[in-house]
Amino acid sequence: MKIGDLSRATGVDVRLLRYYEAQGLLTSRRSEGGHRHYGPEAPAAVARVRTLLAAGLTTKVIRELMPCFVGDGTELQACVLDHIRTQLTEMDTRIADLTQARTALAGILASSTQALTPA
Description:
Blueprint: H1 3-10, H2 14-22, E1 29-30, E2 36-37, H3 42-54, H4 59-65, H5 81-116
Antiparallel strand pairs: 1-2
């Protein structure tokens, strides 16, 4: 399958497919003319990458996980589940930090608005 065909099949822009390949998330073979050709597993791999990106994982983490998938879905081998748990814990920490920052910013806005309101 050529890159344009893969783009149409997955709804993913050709530039993104090239990026995924550059990041080691997708593989192709080259024709004598230098054109990319993808195997029949490529649409499932692209769907997997899109799902994991939407889940907040970086391309680096996704690249590490790519050899550990079971089947065509996003199910992973048990040996990497601790890695996923670590990612989830780190995400929870970032959410908590952002929640605190939001609360502080909302407080600043409220007190500033109150101070600017004539009595």
